[in-house]
Write a structure and sequence with these properties.
Order of helices and strands: HHHEEEHHH
Largest sheet: 3 strands, mixed
Oligomer: single chain
CATH topology of one domain: Zincin-like
Helix content: 40-55%
Number of strands: 3
CATH class of one domain: Alpha Beta
Radius of gyration: 25 Å
Number of helices: 6
Strand order of the largest sheet: 1-3-2
Structural class: alpha+beta
Length: 153
């Protein structure tokens, strides 16, 4: 530091001498408020998936047995994949000590959804359809929130 630096006060963005202000710079104890942390797309999707799976698994766990639920970004398709459709999920039935595994692919679902409510509806419909297939019952019997107009597809 030079002598000049000691004599000349530093200029700050604080033009009126009140200091930095707002909930983002105030300590939590002083304001009692913490600004919300930004959520990534992955975190939002994981929360939606967890909410759907927790609700369905709580109702059907004794009929389903051991099921592993997972989220992956996108399916790994073989080079010779010639279908015009991208899979939205994968269901592999368990055998013996291997649990059944239901994998939902995040990116294709996000691509189809217009907003968060639409994404929630798509995830719910997809998980309900897969669980209904495992149980051998109709999707609307698995969860009453399942849209009945999708049964015709």
């Amino acid at each position: 530091m030079t002598e000049r630096d000691e004599l000349v006060p530093r200029r700050r963005r604080d033009r009126r001498g009140r200091g930095m202000r707002g909930p983002a710079v105030q300590p939590l104890a002083a304001t009692g408020h913490r600004p919300p942390l930004p959520r990534s797309r992955r975190e939002v999707f994981d929360k939606i998936m967890l909410d759907v799976v927790t609700d369905i698994d709580a109702r059907w766990s004794e009929h389903l047995g051991l099921v592993e639920y997972a989220v992956e970004d996108a399916p790994q398709l073989p080079d010779d994949w010639d279908s015009g459709r991208v899979p939205l999920s994968s269901l592999v039935r368990g055998s013996g000590t291997t649990p059944t595994r239901l994998v939902v692919f995040r990116r294709p679902l996000e691509h189809r959804a217009a907003d968060r409510a639409d994404l929630e509806a798509i995830v719910l419909a997809l998980v309900v359809e897969q669980v209904a297939e495992l149980l051998g019952i109709e999707p609307h019997d698995v969860d009453p929130r399942y849209p009945s107009d999708l049964d015709d597809d």
